């Protein structure tokens, strides 16, 4: 730490436990005034928990927080704000209908202070209430304009939010923090929603802020950003601090290694591959947009063969969901082709994909995977109802099917008439797996199948997926768990910012190498050869 | 011709007043995210309360005042159910409307056919006296009851309240995204209660306008779906008080035409009355005309849903109860 | 809110997990008792002896004729209740049962007055035409909702009022010579036969058949399966290949058909001609019925029976006591409101909190 910079924030020995996991394990972490400090780690490393502690949303089980030499006792976000901590979340909390100024001043009605500063003439009755009715928009407008000018934000304060693009909206979120006199601003994965140009502008803005004496904490998993824009970085892994380094003194490779670790944690048995040459699913130059209309997939070429597991590694938010949904017919692509079993099914209905023997285990089992208040029987036949009915439903057959699934897939339940939402996460996931696998699909997409469930269920699901693969099903497995990818895949690809940046085979790579690609360490100005010898990354063109 | 127009317009104004007041109330409530389908019942309660008070005290103004209170008390049921108990707003509103109309029919029977002190029409001093003889619009503009003018005055007040005050801003936030509003320390519950109570106040006033100004009597089906039209009007107004004025007076004119057509044959004053006579008979038939407010609203609903940006149309959290996600 | 001794109190509401048996059974009981109490107060308030009135209601209902009248009243309520029930299972609000009823009544009258066919055939055609016409009418809100997500609550509500008004016009078109507010009387061939010397008419068979049909469809067919699952989770269902268009438009169509049958039955069975307001408030009552019966077709039957009892009971009270007929609507609305309140109590519990608070327990993991 440079001797002339004082410490603005110190989190000392923070411990935060949840049932079954220690999210923060004696984390000690300090930030100097005026620096941009990166907080680097994979999903599940503990970064967001730590920041929620800082923001008053969680109370730590142990540990202290000091700001400018004073110990803080944070019981709510309000306390954090009053202590000068501002947070810019990934999902903006803005009202599109209202203007920039209005969003910034929302919820702030310090009537008494205002009344004191600009009193009304004596003869107006109920002057306090009258004051309350008159908007303080003018004063807020002043302050906001002043902030905009000071930091060069280039936003029209009277513009409505819906008129602004993502980068501008993010700046409004930053303004919200500045307006409340934040000294320390925490940004949570800010570039997840930005284009390269917008990211560049964001970092310029952050520089300007720190030059004026503010301090910034940047939570990210992207090495690019850390190397280019931070002064120092703290790396978290599995709830613990790995190290805190001056960013100038490390390389991307070293950082990647710190993030994902060197040791091989599981014995990766040699999987005898059952893959054949026949392709069950193929995506060609696939493009797709996300909910906001921003391009999430930029030209994906991917093939999955009979009997093989292709693992897609990468942090959520790089296009995984869009790719999974396109390949099972749940989302329409904007360009490119999807072939299933040799037939072109691009943008066909989800029913056509189901008829083509495509199965899907979605990321969110409650939202997309089941009908929560219907019974297990109904959930079990949800996709294949045609097999159990022409017009009339064959209840007997359906119940037998459900019984079979419950037994084969170890679903712990009192009976098959229980409602789906009464099952624990692990058991529901096993049911969904059962439903999807019992159809004996040709092609299966599994998106984060073992996330958020108990260890027993995790092992079970991995087992049945591999068994299914051995019978000839081609599986596309999305997982944020690198070990899972390494353990289960024949081939591995890395999805980063909507493109496949790396292709390899399981035995031919290491945790560090994949880790580097996941984090974009081997980003813009390098190309990496895949197993078929082709280059998979082009230079990013900045407009 | 001008006599026809004049008779229509002068009737249109008092006909529009209850619609306008009811609509203002519905807009305020809906902007905070609470669909108030109990306006019809609240209007009935307000109407009877006003009528009885005026009958017992001899003062229509006191009647109006009591109607405001009665409206608020009645609508507080909706508030409790919808905001605190998170019940289904549609059912609650419909049932409260049913209850309001039924209760007033039930308890109001002794008052049917009686006459009480109602609001007299007044001529606006100075300007009114001078311009009252203007053809067509003279009486319509300058000779109405105080409630009619009150209704018009309420519009800019509501507009200002919703669009220029801090509270109005919070109401908009709560109606669009209660979760974000909650994060910004806005009390969602309190804001919604306030808005629902205000809607009850205005609906009560609307009821008073019907019993003490427009109809000047009490009978079982006095409100006659005016409350429902006021709710429909919110869509035509696109949740904006300024637009509500246009819609309310349009519907008022339609009503006036329904009424006047019984004594005047509109077909004769329209072009091509010979050839298109039967067409005009259909278009101007009072029963057919009574469907126009509903049909127009459906058309506006379809058109605006397709063309308006989602963020600028209905409050996004309308009809959804809000509860902080931590229990 | 702060108390004088410096402590704060606040009210908070949290979801109730596993309501106790007392609450689960107490609530419906509470609903009925509270409603009767409320109505009793209303009756007393206008100077009538509530106990005597209720006594009359019970004795009149226990007579043969009384029971038959209950069934008469139940027929359109059952059909209309089912009309709201089917879309409700799909997650849609059908406030347009009234629209279907009036459309059905208009069409049935028109067919009955104009076609010259033997009785059974004529009645069948009337029913089919009425059902079809109302079903087609409901395609409007169905399509608007399926294609553009336009709220079906408002569209169906507006259609109801439109059709009620329009029926007045239809009456004039088919008007009788006397100038009385009604259409011409239906020919005998079009009038539904009545049974057992009571007013129970053919409609009862229509109602029973409809009930069975709805039950079978919902529980035994693939379509019903899709409806129920779509109602539970539209997104997951669509991902499983269930078609939103089919469900939304299909259920609203069925709702239209059922309410059309209700209207036709009422006109051909009871009124024998088209009169204004022949089914006052049935559309709204149907919503209440469907709400209470939302878990099954047979519960819809029970709910419609209940409201029929209330209706006839009140009608009988009105014959003997100076209680205005509006008491029916009062009871109906109060029952639903207590029902909803009971639901609220079942789902949530209210806490009165005083500070200082003990340390908050660990919160749920958000991963």
Annotation keywords:
heterotrimer; A: 543 residues; alpha/beta; Rossmann fold; six-stranded mixed β-sheet; 19 helices; 33% helix; 24% strand; B: 327 residues; mainly alpha; ABC transporter involved in vitamin B12 uptake, BtuC; two-stranded antiparallel ribbon; 14 helices; 1% strand
CATH-derived architecture of the domain at 72-321 in chain C:
Orthogonal Bundle
Estimate nothing, just give the exact number of structural domains of chain B.
1
- Largest sheet features of chain B: 2 strands, antiparallel
Largest sheet of chain C: 2 strands, antiparallel
Low-confidence stretches of chain C: 357-367
Q: Name the chain pair with the biggest interface and residue counts per chain.
A: B-C, 44 and 50 residues
Helix content of chain B: 55-70%
Identify low-pLDDT runs of chain B: none
H and E order of chain B: HHHHEHHEHHHHHHHH
Describe the global form of chain C.
globular
Q: Please write the string of helix (H) and strand (E) elements of chain C.
A: EHHHHHHHHHHHHHHE
Number of helices of chain C: 14
Question: In which range does the helix fraction of chain C lie?
Answer: 55-70%
């Amino acid at each position: 730490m440079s001797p002339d910079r004082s410490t603005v924030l110190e989190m000392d020995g923070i411990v935060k436990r949840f049932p079954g996991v220690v999210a923060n394990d004696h984390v000690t972490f300090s930030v100097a005034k005026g620096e941009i400090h990166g907080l680097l780690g994979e999903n599940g490393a503990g970064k967001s928990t730590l920041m929620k502690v800082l923001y008053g949303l969680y109370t730590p089980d142990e540990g202290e927080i000091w700001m400018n030499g004073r110990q803080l006792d944070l019981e709510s976000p309000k306390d954090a704000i009053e202590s000068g901590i501002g947070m810019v979340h990934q999902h903006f909390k803005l009202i599109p209908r209202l203007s920039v100024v209005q969003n910034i001043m929302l919820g702030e009605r310090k009537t008494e202070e205002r009344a004191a500063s600009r009193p009304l003439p004596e003869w107006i009755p109920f002057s306090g209430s009258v004051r309350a009715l008159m908007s303080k928009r003018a004063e807020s407008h002043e302050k906001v304009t002043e902030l905009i000018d000071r930091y060069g934000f280039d936003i029209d304060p009277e513009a409505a939010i819906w008129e602004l693009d993502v980068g501008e909206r993010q700046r409004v979120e930053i303004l919200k923090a500045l307006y409340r006199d934040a000294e320390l601003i925490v940004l949570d994965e800010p570039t997840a929603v930005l284009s390269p140009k917008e990211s560049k502008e964001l970092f310029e803005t952050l520089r300007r802020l720190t030059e004026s004496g503010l301090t910034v904490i940047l939570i990210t998993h992207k090495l690019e950003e850390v190397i280019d824009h931070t002064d120092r970085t703290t790396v978290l892994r599995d709830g613990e601090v790995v190290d805190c380094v001056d960013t100038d003194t490390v390389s991307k490779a070293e950082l990647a290694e710190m993030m994902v670790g060197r040791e091989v944690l599981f014995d990766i048995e040699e999987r005898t591959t059952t893959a054949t040459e026949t392709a069950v699913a193929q995506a060609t130059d696939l493009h797709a947009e996300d909910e906001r209309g921003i391009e999430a997939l930029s030209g994906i070429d991917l093939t999955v063969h009979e009997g093989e597991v292709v693992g897609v590694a990468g942090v959520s938010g790089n296009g995984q969901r869009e790719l999974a949904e396109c390949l099972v017919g749940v989302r329409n692509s904007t360009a490119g082709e999807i072939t299933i079993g040799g037939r072109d099914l691009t943008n066909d209905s989800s029913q056509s994909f189901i008829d083509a023997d495509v199965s899907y285990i979605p990321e969110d089992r409650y939202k997309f995977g089941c009908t929560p208040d219907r019974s297990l029987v109904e959930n079990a036949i949800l996709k294949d109802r045609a097999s159990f009915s022409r017009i009339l439903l064959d209840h007997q057959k359906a119940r037998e099917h459900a019984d079979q699934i419950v037994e084969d897939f170890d679903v712990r339940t009192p009976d098959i008439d229980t409602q789906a939402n009464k099952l624990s996460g692990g058991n529901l996931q096993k049911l969904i797996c059962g439903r999807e696998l019992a159809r004996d699909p040709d092609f299966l997409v599994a998106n984060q199948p073992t996330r958020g469930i108990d260890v027993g269920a995790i092992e079970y699901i991995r087992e049945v997926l591999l068994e299914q693969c051995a019978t000839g099903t081609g599986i596309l497995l999305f997982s944020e768990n690198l070990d899972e990818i390494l353990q289960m895949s024949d081939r591995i690809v890395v999805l980063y910012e909507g493109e496949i940046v790396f292709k390899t085979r399981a035995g031919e790579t290491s945790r560090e190498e994949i880790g580097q690609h996941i984090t974009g360490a081997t980003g813009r100005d390098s190309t990496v050869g895949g197993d078929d010898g082709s280059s998979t990354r082009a230079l990013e063109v900045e407009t | 011709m001008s006599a026809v127009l004049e008779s229509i317009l002068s009737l249109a104004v008092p006909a529009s007043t209850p619609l306008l007041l009811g609509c203002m109330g519905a807009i305020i409530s809906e902007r905070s995210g609470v669909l108030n389908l109990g306006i019809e019942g609240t209007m009935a309660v307000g109407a009877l309360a006003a009528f009885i008070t005026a009958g017992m005290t001899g003062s229509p103004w006191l009647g109006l005042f009591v109607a405001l209170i009665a409206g608020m008390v009645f609508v507080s049921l909706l508030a409790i159910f919808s905001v605190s108990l998170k019940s289904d707003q549609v059912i609650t509103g419909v049932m409260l409307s049913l209850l309001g109309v039924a209760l007033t029919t039930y308890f109001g029977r002794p008052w049917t056919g009686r006459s009480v002190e109602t609001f007299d029409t007044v001529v606006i001093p100075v300007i009114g006296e001078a311009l009252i003889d203007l053809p067509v619009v003279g009486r319509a503009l300058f000779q109405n009851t105080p409630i009619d003018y009150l209704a018009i005055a309420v519009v800019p007040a509501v507009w200002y309240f919703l669009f220029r005050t801090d509270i109005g801003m919070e109401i908009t936030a709560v109606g669009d995204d209660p979760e974000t509003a909650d994060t910004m320390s806005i009390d969602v519950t309190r804001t919604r209660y306030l808005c629902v109570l205000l809607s009850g106040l205005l609906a009560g006033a609307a009821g008073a306008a019907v019993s003490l100004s427009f109809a000047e009597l009490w009978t079982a089906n006095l409100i006659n779906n005016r409350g429902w039209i006021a709710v429909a009007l919110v869509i035509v107004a696109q949740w904006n008080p300024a637009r509500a004025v246009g819609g309310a007076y349009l519907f008022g004119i339609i009503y006036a035409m329904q009424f006047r057509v019984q004594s005047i044959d509109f077909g004769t004053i329209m072009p091509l009355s010979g050839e298109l006579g039967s067409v005009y008979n259909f278009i101007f038939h009072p029963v057919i005309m009574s469907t126009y407010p509903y049909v127009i609203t459906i058309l506006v609903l379809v058109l605006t849903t397709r063309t308006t940006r989602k963020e600028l149309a209905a409050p996004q959290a309308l009809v959804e109860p809000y509860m902080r996600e931590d229990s | 809110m702060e108390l004088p001794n410096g402590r704060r109190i606040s009210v908070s509401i949290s979801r109730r997990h596993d309501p106790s048996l007392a609450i689960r059974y107490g609530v419906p009981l509470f609903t009925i008792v509270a409603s009767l109490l409320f109505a009793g107060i209303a009756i007393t308030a206008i100077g009538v002896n509530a106990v005597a009135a209720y006594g009359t209601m019970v004795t009149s209902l226990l007579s043969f004729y009384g029971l038959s009248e209950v069934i008469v009243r139940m027929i359109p309520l059952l059909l209309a209740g089912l009309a709201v029930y089917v879309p409700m299972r799909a997650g849609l609000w059908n406030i347009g049962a009234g629209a279907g009823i009036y459309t059905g009544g208009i069409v049935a009258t028109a067919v009955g007055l104009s076609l010259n066919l033997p009785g059974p055939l004529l009645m069948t055609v009337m029913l089919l035409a009425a059902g079809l016409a109302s079903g087609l009418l409901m395609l409007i809100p169905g399509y608007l909702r399926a294609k553009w997500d336009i709220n079906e609550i408002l569209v169906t509500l507006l259609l109801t009022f439109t059709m009620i008004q329009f029926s007045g016009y239809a009456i004039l078109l088919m008007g009788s010579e006397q100038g009385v507010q009604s259409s011409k009387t239906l020919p005998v061939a079009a009038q539904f036969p009545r049974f057992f010397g009571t007013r129970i008419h053919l409609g009862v068979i229509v109602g029973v058949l409809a009930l069975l049909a709805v039950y079978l469809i919902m529980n035994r067919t693939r379509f019903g399966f899709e409806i129920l699952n779509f109602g539970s989770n539209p997104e997951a269902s669509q991902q499983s290949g269930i078609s939103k268009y089919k469900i939304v438009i299909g259920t609203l169509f069925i709702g239209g058909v059922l309410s059309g049958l209700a209207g036709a039955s009422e006109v051909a069975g009871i009124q024998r001609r088209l009169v204004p307001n022949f089914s006052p408030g049935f559309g709204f009552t149907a919503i209440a019925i469907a709400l209470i019966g939302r878990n099954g077709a047979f519960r819809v039957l029970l709910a419609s029976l209940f409201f029929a009892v209330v209706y006839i009971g009140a009608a009988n009270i009105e014959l003997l006591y100076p209680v205005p007929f509006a008491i029916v609507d009062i009871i109906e609305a109060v029952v639903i409101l207590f029902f909803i309140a009971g639901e609220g109590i079942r789902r949530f519990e209210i806490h009165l909190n005083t500070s200082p608070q003990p340390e908050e327990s660990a919160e749920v993991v958000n991963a």
